[in-house]
Design brief:
This protein is mainly beta. It contains 4 helices and 16 strands. The two termini are about 20 Å apart.
Length: about 260
């Protein structure tokens, strides 16, 4: 199976330069300096969570570039999200559907046309294959510019950095860092570092779009570092519509072969 195409598809779940800067994340709102004297980790989390995104469904038209040590691809995609229930991704090259994936809180399914293969399985198997832990909430949050973890349930140290703040925690030999700008407290970057496993994952959000129902990323830049090398994925959200009545069709074409991912 052409693994690059499948990793790109999963990266849409997990996460380009946007064409335009939509939300000012450098200048304090209303020209007033931000008072950092009372800032704490808890207040950063609270202010970030105050940025509500009100939607039942999202329909995202996107384009992406994938690069690894020995492969590169450019594709277009449609991403459909029914909040907390399912995500459907269709990847196209020159208008032809080359891969499709459907994920729910319990399972992941996808097929790819190049070699006529399909996969059905759980997150444990997929996480081991990709080298980073995944579940439905992490994927959904990453796509909409939210932290992969519920920050209210963790303990984080707080550091002030250039034009923003950094929250950091280390648990079970895994270090997680979340970077926020200081105007709207939007998430600019999130990192997962596992030194013993020699792998690191980061998702960057260069710019944002302000919609009537909330602020969303204008794109995601993903970098994944493993022993075998670096993978880079640049995703640009070309358009987003809210609360449409979406369908989520998924059927594996006849004659495709099921693949099984060997667990370590």
């Amino acid at each position: 199976m052409k693994k690059g195409l499948c990793i790109l598809m999963i990266a849409f779940f997990a996460s380009c330069k946007p064409k335009q800067v939509f939300v000012d994340t450098k200048t304090p709102a209303n020209g007033v300096n931000v008072d950092t004297t009372a800032i704490t980790s808890e207040k950063i989390i609270q202010k970030h969570n105050n940025n509500k995104i009100d939607f039942s469904t999202l329909y995202i038209r996107a384009s992406a570039k994938y690069r690894s040590e020995n492969d590169s691809q450019s594709v277009s995609a449609e991403i459909k999200i029914k909040r907390d229930e399912k995500i459907l991704v269709s990847i196209r090259v020159l208008g032809i559907t080359m891969a499709k994936a459907l994920i729910t809180p319990n399972e992941v399914k996808y097929y790819e046309k190049v070699n006529g293969n399909y996969f059905e399985g759980d997150y444990e198997t997929l996480s081991q294959w990709l080298g980073t832990d995944l579940d439905f909430n992490k994927i959904q949050n990453m796509l909409i510019g939210k932290p992969i973890d519920d920050l209210t349930k963790g303990n984080y140290s707080f550091t002030e950095i250039d034009n923003g703040y950094k929250l950091n925690t280390i648990e079970d030999k895994t270090e997680k860092s979340f970077f926020f700008e200081m105007v709207h407290f939007l998430l600019k970057k999130q990192e997962i570092d596992q030194p013993e496993k020699e792998r690191r994952f980061e998702a960057n959000y260069p710019n944002f779009q302000d919609y009537p129902l909330g602020i969303l990323p204008a794109g995601i830049n993903i970098n994944a570092f493993q022993k075998k090398g670096k993978t880079t994925i640049e995703i640009e959200y070309n358009s987003i519509t809210f609360n449409e009545d979406l369908s989520f069709p998924y059927n594996v074409p006849d004659g495709y072969d099921r693949i099984f991912i060997k667990q370590n």
